[in-house]
Amino acid sequence: MNSTRITGGPGTRRRRRVAAAATAIVAAIAGVGALTGFHLELREIDPPGSNAESEVVTDEVVGIRTFTPPAGIRVEADLEYGTREDGTLLTLDVCRPAAPIASVSTVDVAATLPAVVSIHGGSWTRGDKANTDWRNVCMWLASEGFVAASVNYRLVPNAIFPSAIDDVALAVEWLRAPEQVDRFGIDPARIGAFGGSAGGNLAALLGTRGEGPLDAGSRVAAVAELSGPVGLGAAELAADGASVWLRGIIGAYLGCEPGASDANCPQAADASPATHADVSDPPVFIGHAESEVVPLGQSQRFATSLSAAGVPVELAIVPGGEHSIGILDERLRAKVAAFLHALLG
């Protein structure tokens, strides 16, 4: 498999030219010395690459590791989709099928393909779009006929909520822009989201947080999430018997003391996808193992809330204790793929 490193497209270069021109004007007025504080060192999210830690902690061949990518998948790595105010470079990888796949809907498939934004897990504190497991997810989605965009986003402790969801939303907007639509042959009306663990929370939140048509801005037309901690409020965590570990990572992500009451951590509700659910939201597929590290009650309650809000939902509970894409074996891959194909083509 060959990867191509690209630091930025034409849109990025135009933004840099505009920024350079603006800096020159300000310098002429105020003097170079006064501008020193405006220059930030650009930095990438660390750690990058295939050796970054996965949320699938076992060494066994489980879940997505049982997938063998077919020949011909095209991967373009480290495409810049944004730069944040603190100088963080946001990047993603795009995986594309070698040719149209027979299982994909034949509706205009010769001209465009549906896309899926893939969101890695790792407790909002670690992980990478290109670690071995998530690169495999990216190539699996491409093998199903989707243009897959595997994204990196800002991590705790350098950034807390809502930084990660803002980054993921920006990635959808970037993918939907005419420049990327033309570049990758995407249908901007057929973009979905897939995530696992912390990425499952972000995928679900991406689906419910916005309003309006599902083919504009950062809206998506389908969400598939696995093992997401989706109910971050103290009452929900108590009802599920959440572990000290889970409460701790949620507190760090939200910028709250672990176990803080809902009154003392109001952002917990805002970071919980069900808070925002309404009938305009896209259908959601939820996968969860019976006895894994994130309590099953999280997904069950989320499914109930979505249904009550009028959002179509499918909940698949699998045996065992594997987590996130550790449960994404051949059988579950077939279910997720069928769900995405039904909604995206």
TrEMBL record:
The keyword rRNA processing does not apply. InterPro entries: AB_hydrolase_fold, BD-FAE-like_dom, GDXG_lipolytic_enzyme. Residues 111-306 form the BD-FAE-like domain. SUPFAM superfamilies: alpha/beta-Hydrolases (SSF53474). The keyword Hydrolase applies. Keywords: Hydrolase. Gene3D superfamilies: alpha/beta hydrolase. This is BD-FAE-like domain-containing protein.
